[in-house]
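User: Second chain of the day. Same drill as before.
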Amino acid sequence: RFDDALLVPGNYTFRVIGRYGEHCKGMREASWSAHVAVGIDPEATRVTLTPVGKAPDGRDRVRVTFTPQDRFGNLVGPGGGAEFSVTGQPGSSTLDPVKDNGDGSYVVEVLHDPAVAPAPGISLTQPGRPSVCLGPRSTGAGAPPRWLWMVIALLILLVLILAYLLLT
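Assistant: Same format as last time:
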């Protein structure tokens, strides 16, 4: 069993040797290679939206800085811009090609029409994988983490139990 295998991107080579027989011994061998790439996880990917100004047609110019990574913390880069393509979500369109910041993060400017969608966003697509949508929700801003909701629910349950015990 390889429970923690393939968590780090890269090339892996496997070699298996099987021995058999007691009197007439034999051996078989097999080998194969696998390439493991980072699968972008929208929950783990950090996104920052920075207003840049207005375009002549009135749409908002927004700089989208994102650090694509998988759920294990492996980054797509630096130098991984060729591993995904970037398109705008509804109401947003990319202006320039994606720029690699050299630290695992990338930046692209978008034009956003608030009449079409409330917030700007982009989609990242990797070959053979479904697109990943990034925007204000994926930054985590304004949305408490799941563990905080669990703590709040537990506290409410404890208060209800205490109230029941005091009333009975």
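The longest strand covers residues 10-20.

User: Great, on to the next one.
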